[in-house]
Amino acid sequence: MGIEKQLKKGVLDILILTLLSKNQKLYGYELIRMLKNTSVNYYSLKEGSLYPVLYRLEDKGLIKNEIYYTEGKRGVPRKYYSITDFGIEMQKEYLNEWRVFKESTEAVLYN
Amino acid sequence: MIKSDEKYINKVLSYILCSRPLSKRIKEDLAISILEKRQIHGDLSAEQLLGKPLLVAKEFIDNLDLGYRQTTRNFYYYVSKRTVFGVPLVHINNRDFKVVKGIIAIGNISVGVISLGGLSFGLISFGGLSFALLLGLGGCAISLGVSISAVAISYLASIGAVAVAKVFAVGAVAHADMTIGAVTKGIVGFYADSSNCDFSYLLNSFNLTEKIDKFSSAIKMVKGKIPILHNLILRILSIFNF
Predict the structure, then answer these.
(1) A interface test, pick of B19, B24, B33, B55 with most A CB neighbours within 10 Å
(2) Are the C-beta atoms of residues B102 and B93 closer than 8 Å to each other?
(3) How far apart are CA B237 and CA B170, in angstroms?
(4) How would you classify residue B60: left for phi > 0, otherwise alpha for psi between -120 and 50, otherwise beta?
(5) Which residues have a Cβ under 8 Å from the Cβ of B61 and sit 6 or more positions away?
(6) Cβ–Cβ of B39/A47 closer than 8 Å?
(7) pLDDT in tens, A83-97
(8) How far is CA B170 from each of CA A51, B126, B142, rounded to the nearest angstrom?
(9) B29 touches chain A (CB under 8 A)
(10) ipTM reported for the complex, 2 dp
């Protein structure tokens, strides 16, 4: 309870953007699993939380998507997301902003 | 997309008030999500894979700052791409109270050539309260042509529990130049209980041919001739005389 939900909501954009910057392309469920595993189950996203972030990043031009079909007779569609050049630029900027935010907040909290 | 997946996704979307493009986006992504998870977790249902529709919808609503619908009604929204003089051929919306306009219009408030709604306006109109140029049906129908409803008001012909018209009315209470009902008022009436007409006849005393004759002679006597609309009604009644 408390402010955890709001805090998590605030960092999702940069987390998803960072995962995409480190991987050539990822599909939705892959993003959810990678975030969960990397954060040791702290970030356990559902579709209703992931897709709004993806829509936001897409609408800003930071990521793009392409649908591929898996191999086999009945190929299953998969929507892969990848970061754009503009997204790479912004991800670095967001990371700097995060560092400043983290240092400034901790300065208040722990001093 | 398999039918059960589509039904699940539509159920999720029924809780979310959003624009059509966003709804389409969410639908596509949920469909793909289900398939992605099914590949890994096996042949489970959409609900087993993603969760209860209401909870999935709530996540989208919270994260996209959308309106949250309290009711669990099934909402439907459709606008046809085809238009006629700029008006959609078909427009259906029962999600909100925006006026639905189309050649065929269905909604809480609808306006169309054929209109169906709680409050409905049209050439042919069906509604709780319907206003029609030609044919009105519903709880209360008001029409220039024909009204058939509990409370029917029209110029030409009304049929209903309470039927009021200029030319012809049939009902428990009927008020028109020519009437058939339990209680009648007008120029000529065939009544079961009581009548306040210039010419009153007991309902069951005459067959249809005789009724038509009585209507004709009474109207001719009062108006000097049988007006066109009265003649039309009498011709229609005679069609039923077999």
Answers:
(1) B33
(2) no
(3) 12
(4) alpha
(5) B15, B16, B67, B68
(6) no
(7) 999 999 999 999 999
(8) 60, 19, 15
(9) yes
(10) 0.86
